[in-house]
Amino acid sequence: MAKVMNRLGFTLWNDALNFRDNRRRRRVLEGLAEFQEHLGGELTVTLLAATGRGVEVHEIDANLVEQSIRWLRARTG
Hints:
By secondary structure, the protein is of the alpha+beta class. It has one domain (2-76). The protein has helices spanning 2-7, 27-38, 62-76; strands spanning 45-50, 53-57. The protein has a two-stranded antiparallel sheet. Strand 1 (45-50) and strand 2 (53-57) form a beta hairpin. The longest helix has 15 residues, at 62-76. It is globular. The model has no long low-confidence stretch (mean pLDDT 89).
């Protein structure tokens, strides 16, 4: 799916995905935690499950985010 999105002109990589805080935690995860707090503890993020099909996610697994960022970086960054 990443190849198709690239061909369609979507930017899939941004160097900000590499930004980390002083504890080496990815800033994108900090941003999601702040967003969750702003929403009163109810996190809802819509992710692409397949072409034209989204899925709502209510918890973020930091290890999966880390793996996903490494995968994306290797293919598009």
